[in-house]
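Second opinion, please. Pick holes in both lines of this record:
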Amino acid sequence: MGTLSFTATVSLDGYAADASGDFQWSSPDGEVFQFHIERMAAVSTEVLGRRTYQLMRYWEAEPEAEAWTAAEHEFARRWRHVEHIVASSTLARTDLGPGDSRLVPHLDLAELERIVAEADGEVEIFGPTTASAAIRAGLVQDFRFFVVPKVVGGGLPALPSDARLELDLREQRVFGNGTVYLHYAPR
């Protein structure tokens, strides 16, 4: 049986994307990126919404116009070796890339619980919109936030506004660029 986690990179004021939908301000530097590579070792399954899945397809193959670093190759290798479950009512199976990807047209809480129960390791639900129902229902067992020292003034909140959570700090780390990693678990 697996565990369910939610990981988000957020602005200091709690947004995963700014009011125009931009999140480029949250790009990790080399030190933070290396930490992401290391934490991927525990992840067996990624649950993603349509937009996040389409964004992360970047890691399926090295773009012809650029050369990846060794760290980017390692992240891509790890990313390709986890199961991807795409929650989308608008994508078709033929829209999914190669590898271990599965389409779930309607991700309800019972389906998410089944996915976690069948997983061999950590199931990471990726994206605030996709994760919101699981967060509200108390299904998330680990919250990992990468807080970027920027204030964006509005946009897509990392957490649902009506979520009520009591959390204990399990781990923290400050990176050289000022990003702070916070790992919480429910009380």
User: Anything to note?
Assistant: The beta strands are 3-11, 15-18, 43-49, 83-87, 101-104, 122-126, 142-148, 155-157, 167-174, 180-186. The chain has one domain: 3-140.
